[in-house]
Amino acid sequence: MENPVIIALDFKNADQAKSFLSSFEGQSPYVKVGMELFYAEGPSFIKWLKEKNFRIFLDLKLHDIPTTVHKAMKVLGGLNIDMVNVHAAGGIQMMRAAKEGLLAAGANHTKLIAVTQLTSTTEKVLNEELLIKNVDMKDCVTHYSDLAKKAGLDGVVCSVQEAMKIKEVCGKAFLTVTPGIRPSGADTHDQARVATPKEAALKGSDYMVIGRSITQSETPVTTYSEILNEWRDSHENNNFPTFA
Ligand code: C5P
């Protein structure tokens, strides 16, 4: 069974991230590097993680014209990362260009996923600000997921609440990567729509992106193990067994 926990390394520099990871001595969890850390440290930190055998989701959310995204993905594909993403709002042509950029770099193993709608976007913003009218958030997210699937992507970032519907439309092998996870009773911080690891397992999530619940825990390794165990215990009842 594949490990479904991706730890969000939301640290401002490599020293802080390395200090946090040192407590995982002997384990190499799947980690997510976002814009702040990548812009601060660049590819050298990614290379360091790879040397230590960490699996890496590079969360840079590319969104530009297809040619630019193709060239950028060709560079990122050279970093031997395990997962990377684009915004589905860039359209099918842009998403295809992203995939082709990765393939041009020989990064056949790198999963390419799409951000559908940011969890910070409300339905009001969708309708009144972005003028995406007559559609609710769930239908919009499902539609964007369908576009990503048509473009040949491997999956999407979505909330746990949307994962099941996406699996129905895009197939059970289409990956759902879900942030907003909180162990029962934990601080929800600024996340509006949260789910427990158990709910994630039961509702079709393939990977859980978890930041503060682990990074700010007094015992991060124990919290990580507890989350993993809760997911594994619940996953037996999942109707969407997408793992090997
Ligand atoms: O600390 P927390 O568990 O809320 O961190 C969630 C991580 O997932 C953060 O790195 C955040 O940027 C990311 N994320 C998110 N919602 C999205 C996409 C990414 O929370 N829609």
From TrEMBL:
Pathway: Pyrimidine metabolism; UMP biosynthesis via de novo pathway; UMP from orotate: step 2/2. The keyword Lyase applies. InterPro entries: Aldolase_TIM, OMPdecase, OMPdecase_AS, OMPdecase_bac, OMPdeCOase_dom, RibuloseP-bd_barrel. Substrate binds at residues 10, 32, 59-68, 119, 182, 191, 211-212. Belongs to the OMP decarboxylase family. Type 1 subfamily. Catalyzes the decarboxylation of orotidine 5'-monophosphate (OMP) to uridine 5'-monophosphate (UMP). HAMAP family: OMPdecase_type1_B. Homodimer. This is Orotidine 5'-phosphate decarboxylase. It comes from Fictibacillus phosphorivorans. The gene is pyrF.
